[in-house]
Amino acid sequence: MKKLLAVLLSLSMPLSSFADCIKPVTSLEQGAQAPCKGYLFTPEKELEVRLTVKEAELLKAETEALNLIVDRYKKKDVEFNKIIDLQIDKTELWKTKAEDITLKYVAIEENRTKRDFWMVVLGVALTVGAGYAVGQAAGR
Hints:
Strand content: under 5%
Helix content: over 70%
Radius of gyration: 48 Å
Low-confidence stretches: 14-19
Structural class: mainly alpha
Distance between the termini: 132 Å
Order of helices and strands: HHH
Largest sheet: none
Number of strands: 0
Mean pLDDT: 85
C-alpha cells in the first residue's frame, strides 16, 4: 500500500512538494493541518487500497509460480518430443529391416520352390532311368 500511495502521491505532486513531506504516507487526525500537498483518503478507502496492493502482490507471486510450472511443462514437452522422435526413428529402422528380411525370405522361398521342382523332375528322371536300366538288364 505504501508503494501505491507513494506512486500516487509522487505523480500528483510537483517536485517542490517532496521537500515539504518527510514520509510518503502520513496519518492525519481530524482537523489537523496537512504537512504537505497531496490526497486525503478515508480509512475505508485506505484499507481498500492496501488490500488491493496486497492482492496484487499475491497475484504476482501466484503468476510467477504458475510461470515456473509452465516452464517445467515446456521443458518436459521438449524432452517427450525428443523421445517420440527417437521412437519414430527406431520404428522406421525396424520397419525397414523387417521389409528387407521379408524380401530376402520371399526370394529364398521362390528359389526353393524352383529348386524343389527341379529336384522332383530329376528324381523322376533318375527313377525312370533306373527302372529302364533294370528292365534292360533283366531282359538280356
